[in-house]
């Protein structure tokens, strides 16, 4: 390797304005949890962040927090399964970015569990639409901003789960959707990588401390397609029955935090991963090794 090349690589490790300086990032489901932490981290690294979430109050609060901390963010609230909302989201992101979009993190989602023989069509259709069709619609709508030969950094990150890699009892809809994300990611990498340099990767999370893994008895819920309340979380009796065994198959013997999960998203989005594309990156604390 030449000394000039060594110097070039070393220079890439110095980011006085942040690793994502000047880049424009759409992060779905960023009103709370992993998405909100990722939005803050991206902004800290110089990105202009579009906080996209169905909860207008929460997305506005995250954007306000970023702006008060010296970052740049706007909130664009809406239902990611609504095609008209996606058009609005992409347009507002492009306007905020002065005609460019560099990063998309398809993070929005929830679970609607049921065993195979009792799963309803609505449970099936809703989860597939949320985790597969919505990210496709967003990426397709943003295509004019990614299929550009200007040498700028562009990256799409699709959030998956160990359920999509290994399957999970009671989550056939979610497991299929998250498994589909892998093929979605690889196809983007193969279609948009050669001519446009777009990177596309999947991050598959294990047990992260979010509302999806909190006690179901807390009463947290999301609204389904017809406004019905869908309870989320893990039943306390299930967690209690598992006891220490709940984390026994995790090498680090603990769940991950939203900040740790978001840090992985930042790492994949950053120039530090500039030669990584089409991969499923397991962020699990060593579960399912």
UniProtKB/TrEMBL annotation:
UniProt entry tagged with the keyword Oxidoreductase: yes
Record has NADP as a keyword: yes
Which reactions does this protein catalyse?
a (3R)-hydroxyacyl-[ACP] + NADP(+) = a 3-oxoacyl-[ACP] + NADPH + H(+)
Tell me where in this chain the Ketoreductase domain is found: 23-195
Enzyme Commission number(s): 1.1.1.100
Residues in coiled coil: none
A single Pfam family, by name?
adh_short
Q: Name one GO molecular function term.
A: 3-oxoacyl-[acyl-carrier-protein] reductase (NADPH) activity
Q: Which UniProt keywords apply?
A: NADP, Oxidoreductase
The similarity annotation says: Belongs to the short-chain dehydrogenases/reductases (SDR) family.
PANTHER family under this entry?
A: 3-OXOACYL-(ACYL-CARRIER-PROTEIN) REDUCTASE, 3-OXOACYL-[ACYL-CARRIER-PROTEIN] REDUCTASE FABG
- Full protein name: 3-oxoacyl-[acyl-carrier-protein] reductase
Q: Which organism does this record belong to?
A: Cylindrodendrum hubeiense
């Amino acid at each position: 390797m030449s000394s000039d090349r060594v110097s070039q690589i070393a220079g890439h490790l110095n980011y006085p304005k942040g690793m994502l300086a000047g880049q424009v990032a759409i992060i779905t489901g960023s009103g709370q949890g992993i998405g909100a932490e990722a939005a803050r981290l991206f902004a800290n690294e110089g990105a202009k962040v579009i906080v996209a979430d169905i909860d207008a109050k929460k997305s506005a609060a995250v954007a306000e927090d970023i702006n008060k901390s010296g970052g740049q963010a706007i909130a664009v609230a809406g239902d990611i399964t609504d095609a008209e909302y996606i058009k609005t989201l992409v347009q507002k992101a492009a306007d905020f970015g002065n005609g460019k979009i560099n990063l998309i993190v398809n993070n929005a989602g929830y679970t609607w569990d049921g065993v195979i023989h009792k799963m309803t069509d609505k449970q099936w259709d809703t989860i597939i639409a949320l985790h597969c069709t919505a990210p496709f619609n967003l990426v397709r709508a943003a295509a004019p901003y990614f299929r550009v030969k200007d040498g700028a950094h562009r990256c799409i990150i699709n959030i998956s789960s160990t359920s999509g890699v290994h399957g999970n009892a009671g989550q056939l809809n979610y497991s299929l959707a998250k498994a589909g994300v892998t093929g979605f990611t690889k196809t983007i990498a193969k279609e948009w990588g050669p001519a446009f340099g777009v990177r596309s990767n999947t991050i598959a999370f294990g047990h992260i401390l979010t509302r999806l893994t909190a006690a179901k008895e807390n009463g947290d819920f999301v609204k389904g397609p017809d406004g019905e309340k869908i309870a989320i979380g893990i039943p306390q009796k299930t967690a209690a029955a598992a006891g220490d065994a709940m984390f026994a198959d995790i090498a680090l013997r603990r769940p991950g935090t939203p900040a740790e999960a978001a840090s992985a998203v930042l790492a994949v989005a950053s120039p530090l991963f500039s030669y990584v594309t089409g991969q499923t990156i397991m962020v699990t604390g060593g579960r399912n090794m």
